[in-house]
Amino acid sequence: MTTLLLVDDEKSVRYAFERTFSSEYTIKTAENGEQAIAAVVEINPAVVLMDIRMPGMDGLTALKILKQSHPHLPIIMVTAFADSASAMQAMKDGAFDYVAKPFDNDELRDIIGKALKAGEIQAGLRCGCGNSAGETSDTKECIVGSSPEVLEMCKKIGQVAGSDLPVLITGETGVGKELTARAIYQHSNRREAPFMVVNCAAMPADLVESELFGYETGAFTGANKQRIGRFEQCDGGTLFLDEIGELPLTAQAKVLRILQDGTFERLGSNTQLRTDVRLITATNRNLEQMAGQRLFRLDLLHRINVLTIPIPPLRQRLKDIPNLILYFLARYGRQVSPPVEGISNDALAKLARHSWPGNIRELENTIRRAVVLARSPILTAGDCLVQQLEAANEDSFQEVVGKQIDHLIRTDESQPYHHLISEVEQMLIKKALELCDGNQVQAASLLGINRMTLRKKLASA
Ligand SMILES: Nc1ncnc2c1ncn2[C@@H]1O[C@H](COP(=O)(O)OP(=O)(O)OP(=O)(O)O)[C@@H](O)[C@H]1O
Ligand SMILES: [Mg+2]
Q: Is 364 near ligand 1, meaning CB less than 6 Å away?
């Protein structure tokens, strides 16, 4: 059974709590901050509930200490009315939430449930991964990071997971929107039912509707066979509509209808069908602004953004970079032989200085590439090529390309477009080969093309 730790100096509170929750959880108790810290080390509870005012070490002090030593442990503060200012302080210091005394048992049960989920997501217990290279035992995904921003994100995931309401996840490219959608699903009541992803930006507008709603034979030219759409396939489950800002307006109206009454028709059919799908959406666009420009339906926006999770860019949570690096090292370091197991301080410092416009995906790709390029089990600053490309100075690289373009446009009167593209391509290939000491496999990996393509391009130069 999951263990909860209740810290309160009042015997009657401890007694009432034990009586209410002992059938659901193993309850351990402590009477002040010092005892709480010792108990956390000893029994490793899943959640702590802690009073603020206690003789000896008070709850706020214990909270600060525990957040240092156990950043992933959800701590719910228990307050009397007079403590509301301290409760706010507690939230700033990383408390998961606070509840007022006397307890409302249902409210408390709910908060404990959310805290458990958030703690589970945060610690990556579901996927058995930790935050250091040594601890990570497999390659499954989990949400890494202990910055307040990531804690807040996990808390929100825990809060929204249990409901069937739509969730809108917003954030720049590569911040972890899809990962968050999966975490919500994995912690929801629908986790045994299907989870499907449709990326609205990845297919032409006319295909989106067939993909989402399906069609009957003969619905349009080429519709030779009936097709069941995602909304129908996913009945009872969760559908993740990625890049919802790209959804065409006609499809937006149909999604709105599904959200309103759960009904839709396959293309080419008048038969009304029903589906029960939990919708999670994501976007890196400003949907309010799009609604203002009539590119996105305001009524749909109001339906999908009932619950929102904004994910901050990596540059606003720099504290997470070392943990993420170790996580990706553990994930990719073993895929090469000999395995790469660590990273030098120089390389860490170099990566910490980068601004990561591509966010966590860029960091992940950097480590993946560095592992391929590494010549020793410890990554060096030289292996981390994003930095090298940047160190080669974006401005000066652009300047060189700019001058070349200028020159070609002025001097080449025949087919400037084709010449320009191949000139710039050759410059890029040359630069990649330089960075990889002429190694074509590494250069192809750096450029994100396959080796044969690189060879062909070199041959045609
Ligand atoms: N906190 C995190 N811990 C570990 N891995 C992460 C974290 N956030 C993101 N990632 C990883 O970074 C990569 C990009 O994340 P994801 O695909 O979820 O981003 P996204 O916001 O959906 O990006 P895009 O807008 O480009 O679609 C994935 O491989 C994901 O597993
Ligand atoms: Mg995505």
A: yes
